[in-house]
Amino acid sequence: MKGSRSWGKIILFSMIALFLLSWVIKSGLLSGSQSPISIRDAFFITLAAFLTLAILSFLYKDNPYYKFAEHLFVGVSAAYWMCVGFWSTFVGNFIPRVSSTLAGFFGVPFKEFNVFYLAPLILGIMLLMRLSSKAGWIARWPLSFIVGTTAGLNLIRYLRSDFVSQVSNTFVPLLVDWKGIGPFFSTFSLSASGQFALSLTNWVIFVGTFCGLVYFFFSKEHKGFYGGASRLGIWVLMVTFGASFGYTVMGRVSLLVGRLTFLFQDWLGMIS
Amino acid sequence: MKFKIWAVCCLAILGMISSGMAQENADTANRATTASISPPAPPGNLEPKDTPDDNGHSITLGWSLSPDDGAGNKSVLGYKIFRSTNRDTGFVERGVSPSGSKEYVDMGGAIPEENDYMPNDTDYYYKLRAVTSDSTVYSETGVIGPTQTTGEWFNRGRTLVLVFVLIFAMVTVFFIRKARSGAELFVRRLAGIEAVDEAIGRATEMGKPILYVLGLGTASDIATIASFSILGRVAKKIAEYQTGLIVPCYDAIVMTVAQETVRTAFLDAGRPDAYNEDMVYYVTSNQFGYVAAVNGTMLRQMPATNIYMGTFFAESLLLAETGALAGSVQIAGTDQVAQIPFFVVACDYTLIGEELYAASAYLSREPILLGSLKAQDYGKAAVIALSIIGIIAAQFNWTWLVELFKSAN
Known about the structure:
The complex is a heterodimer.
Chain A: H1 2-26, H2 39-56, H3 64-94, H4 100-106, H5 118-128, H6 140-169, H7 190-215, H8 224-267
Helix pairs in contact in A: 1-2, 2-3, 2-8, 5-6, 7-8
Chain B: H1 2-36, E1 44-50, E2 58-64, E3 78-84, E4 92-98, E5 103-107, E6 124-131, E7 138-140, E8 144-147, H2 159-180, H3 191-206, E9 210-215, H4 222-241, E10 245-249, H5 252-268, E11 280-282, H6 287-301, E12 305-311, H7 315-325, E13 329-334, H8 340-346, E14 349-352, H9 355-364, H10 367-395, H11 399-407
Parallel strand pairs in B: 9-10, 9-12, 10-11, 12-13, 13-14
Antiparallel strand pairs in B: 1-2, 2-5, 3-4, 3-6, 6-7, 6-8
Helix pairs in contact in B: 2-10, 3-4, 4-5, 4-9, 6-7, 7-8, 9-10
């Protein structure tokens, strides 16, 4: 136990020494040459690189460096979002519409008194009532309002975008003006093959939609016809998910490349 | 030698003179071309009208083409639209419409803070300019107006959506009443949800907590609302079994609702004393900061079961992979299509899309949720029926149905 603690101290001091060395080299103080990066910028680049490495050390296992980076990240981001919420929502949007005195105090231009802006104020105060043990029940009312109102609004949005729009996208002819069934093989042309491909695409859309919907039927046991259709439906879904998986992984790889570029280009200067 | 120099100089001078003359000739030709463009005939019947079925702040202009647009001397390249709030002065160009077009929608901003703010109930005057390749050669209509913008309460284009809402509401109310009257409404078995009870039992046996992640959605997201129902059920079981629960939250409002849900569940289970407010806590509203914190929790507290239900984005695989590394049983459910594949590969059970909504009804057996689920199934049957009708209509080129649906978008 004592040995591991001393090893921990050695690693910590080594990391601090490495950090300082990296900072000094990055800022050009060691070579005496005029570095294009200021001492402050060199510090932040080195810090960002060390924090990146600390987060990546999670791939090995949970360790004190990861914990430090995690707690720093969580603390800074929570404080940042609180400040953003206060200055953009409360000071930026609310105060300029309710009080010219407060607007003057915060140094934001007073716009126009708007009585509707008092509604979120009242709901916010009601929400804070949960801090009181006796009046905590009042906090349920604004929660109900938020959940109920937005659920109602979302119903219309989903009905338009998911229901009406997607239903209309299935309105496709299953036979696209294709007259080649009999003489098809003898008079095969690019036009005929194009029509065949389009017809096939439309069939896939129809069958895929039908079977996918059957899979999401909860009122029927998946047996017999429903069972077959739902099995085909889950195949369609899995093929779609596979394509989506590959596409998204490509995006993630580009994020990793971005991070490695930062380490090798901005920090180590190994890539010009 | 001298002769050669003289010859070169003479040729150079001649070349300069000839190139200068050529330039002059070209300029003359250009001027002639420019001068040959005569002002086109102006467009006619300019008619500005308030754009129907909107919230105002927009005027639709219609006109008949200039006789020189595509015909005559074919000199019209397009139409410039000018607007002013004064009949005589202050006209500002609002946009350009290409030749052959007969309509333009002049859309302004709806909020006073916007640069392009176009207040309703204000007089607007318009004039239209037919432009040519020469910016100095054009013709204009007279000033037309005033026209005012007004907002409408009802968008007639969305009548179809209203019809669907009413039908869906009626079917839902019908099934809720049926469920309340005691009728047995069948819901098929959902493997992912049946695993929840098993996973809670496993956590109790192992003496380890259950981690419940509500995702990155807000309290207004449908998936988060469904997740609250499942959390309530899970929390009730946890209260009965006296297992630990960890609910890290991304959003402050979600945390508040989750705390209320868990508190109520513990109360329903008859164990209000076992409820601890610190079970549900706020982490941060930064996506990857949240992931870092939850991942750390997974590896330090080693929960027996991780349940991910709600709206997830890029963090889905990061969370699920870490959970798999920690050896936890993982059950996930989301309606985010792009994230389902990650849960499918990294979790033991995954609720795909609508199964998440069905899960809350399946678990609670509440008449309201069961009735809604039945209505949704009928909605799906309606989609299949409409698709078949639409396919027949498309096959026989009956465009009315497609147009009807397009107008509702």
